[in-house]
Amino acid sequence: MAVVDPDGLVLNANDALAALLGTDAASLRDQVAADLVDLAGDPRTWHAYREVLRGHRSRFRCTRRLKHPDGRSLWAEVTVAPVPRGHNVLLSIADISDRRELQARLRHLQMHDPVTRLPNRTLFFERLTSALENSSYDAYESYGSHGDGGTGRIGLCYLDLDGFKAVNDTLGHRVGDRLLAAVATRLTECADNDGHARGGGHLVARLGGDEFAILVEDSSGTDQLAGLAGAVLAAVQRPFDLAGQRLSVSASIGVVERLAAGTTVNGLMQAADTTLYWAKADGKARWTLFDPERNAHRMTRQALSSTLRPAVERGEFALEYQPLVGMADGTVRGVEALVRWHHPRFGALAPNRFVGIAEEDGSIVQLGRWVLRTACRQARRWQLEHPRERPLFVSVNVAVRQVWDSDLVTDVAGILAETGLPAHLLQLELTESAVMGSAGRPLQALQALSDMGVRIAIDDFGTGYSNLAYLSRLPVSVLKLDGSFVRGFQDEAHPNPADEVIVETMVDLAHRLGLTVTAECVETAGQAARLRRIGCDTGQGWLYSRAVAPERIADMIRVGAKVA
């Protein structure tokens, strides 16, 4: 201890303080107390100390690192408090080096993974948070003033081992832990050998299970992260020899590199997690760089998925109809119903933006039932409003999941009865891959629908299984040629004979089986003439009309239903 006067000079000091500072008590008298324990080392501590000396503050305490004359360092807890009945203050110093060392050991245990000895999740996020906070300055100014400042960028390699669970399940957790420790060693070597590493190098951490992260502070760009990810991938793929057990594993790595300014911990980790998922989905054993455009598409897809079911109930969907035209006389024979989603945020969306999502989450059943009912009701309305014209059939697309997840036959029968539409004016379209692979329940459903009088069409014919023997046993009445065959007819100056032979063969085959043929994507009069010559029955495409509102179809019916 030492008694200090209001001017900050030592009046008296005991032998214990003198021993702590490596001197004698007499030599401490009249010395500046703040200099003995470095109280002027930072503005906040110096201000607090001065406030106690002036009597404006009752006491303050701080921790300082002191240098002993023999060269060793020690940690001291410094307390400054007024002496009762006087103007002096009492300076007390306690050696807390042992306590600090114990705290450091406990913190190390708390912040490191016991299996791999790597920093754990807690320390990783503490370091990441600090890195983002400290990198918020302008990199240009840093380089301009110091020449060796940071880049203001941050990078992250987020990886997990492919098939690690199988190692634990078959060889046991002891072997699994040895593998994790061996992987940690190789990751650390890769981080240490990165020529672009600055300062103390990259932080390699185990985030849990078989997930690891390499944090690159002041990264130099995506090339650096790509090089590091490639090195990590190669290192992990080298076989491991674990006490005579030889193992081969791979890793999937998500790579993110960006400006630190404006980046949050949650934002960076979400991007890394998404990119790791991409690497897994793309085939594993690879690294993938974060792609903002792909992520925007994923976010849009997620937003659509979460709002699709309620959108049917809110009436956000509408149907447009594209004419199916007789090739011989140019009259409209029927229409294909095409659903559009008028999304309040993303605007008008075509089926390819949401039908796949609906099939994945099962909402296609609810949506498909609405499309079927709306299309049949509209076809019946045209029939009633134009009794003297030949009625148009309506063609509705059906996903194979509608057959499996609902009673399609009952739905169709109920809707036909409800709307009053004759069964022969309804055509259901299924893709070739769905129909050709049908067996059991789907085939029974198709047969029941055909027996009811509903026409069954195979959409995109020629691009799927093309099991011609099976085709003869299906209750199909229409083949719709995929547009890729029709587009081959566009070059009228230099036609490809093979395209015409293929289409002619398919048309002839269909006719021999008693089927009619519809050509999709007819865009020019030349295409239509060649398809007519080959024998296609109906055509569909922009030559005749795009998909239009039901009122436009009514106009076509009124003028005689001839569009070409």
UniProtKB/TrEMBL annotation:
Gene3D superfamilies: 3.30.70.270, EAL domain, PAS domain
Alphabetical list of Pfam families matching this protein: EAL, GGDEF, PAS_4
Domain (EAL) ranges: 301-561
Superkingdom in the source lineage: Bacteria
Domain GGDEF: 152-292
InterPro entries linked to this entry: Biofilm_reg_signaling (IPR052155), EAL_dom (IPR001633), EAL_sf (IPR035919), GGDEF_dom (IPR000160), Nucleotide_cyclase (IPR029787), PAS (IPR000014), PAS-like_dom_sf (IPR035965), PAS_4 (IPR013656)
SUPFAM superfamilies: EAL domain-like, Nucleotide cyclase, PYP-like sensor domain (PAS domain)
PANTHER family, alphabetized: BIOFILM ARCHITECTURE MAINTENANCE PROTEIN MBAA, DIGUANYLATE CYCLASE DGCP
NCBIfam families from the UniProt entry: GGDEF (TIGR00254), sensory_box (TIGR00229)
Name of the protein described by the UniProt record: EAL domain-containing protein
Organism of derivation: Streptomyces changanensis
